[in-house]
Amino acid sequence: MMSDITWLEHVFSDLNIQCEKISHPALHTALEADRLLLERPGTRLKNLFLRDNYGKRHFLLITSPNKQVDLKALSKAQGLSRLGFASNERLAKYLGVKPGCVSMLALLNDKNNAVQLWIDSQLWQSDLFHCHPFENTQTWLMEKKDLLKVFDYSNHSVELVDL
Q: What are the tens digits of pLDDT across the range 97-118?
């Protein structure tokens, strides 16, 4: 489980992915980004790392920062008994990042393909997305086509969910 930006840059080079990289103070939440009044093109994201009731299945849910997620309704729609937030220990184990550093790019650390990716179907209409590269002092602006390369490389697929 490697959480190294240099390694990530090598992967991007191998996949022929280029993106704009923006450095900023550490941002743990979308609300903190709002306070800085950062003007960046693209779609801002809320990244939620979830687990099922038994802790056997894990999910990375990507949605809009302003959207309230009804976990009870989502678990019912996905045929699960209950969803909850995964612990920081699970986050480190499965995605190799700390709280506040979660993004779709962390799926590259999920070597066992233990985390399912769920993306809000409305959000996925966009073409440019904000992603932390394993740490929250940078935002990389990722085109959808390049994120799809990352998902293919990491053996993850996109499951669109209606929230």
A: 999 899 999 999 999 999 999 9
- Quote the CA–CA distance of 120 and 105 in Å, as a whole number: 16
Decide yes or no: CATH 3.90.960.10 for domain 5-161: yes
**β-pair partners for 159:** 118
Count Cα atoms within 13 angstroms, Cβ side, for 51: 14
Q: Where are the alpha helices (DSSP H) in 5-62?
A: 5-14, 30-36
Over residues 38-80, the pLDDT tens digits come to 667 789 899 999 999 999 999 999 999 989 999 999 999 999 9
Question: Is 64 in contact with 122 (CB distance < 8 Å)?
Answer: yes
Whole-structure pTM value: 0.91
Give me the residue spans of the domains in the chain: 5-161
Measured from the Cβ of residue 73, the count of other Cβ atoms closer than 10 Å reads: 12
Edge-to-edge, what's the strand order for the sheet holding 58-63? 83-85, 46-52, 58-63, 115-120, 158-161
- In terms of phi and psi (left: phi > 0; alpha: psi -120 to 50; beta: otherwise), the region of 107 is alpha
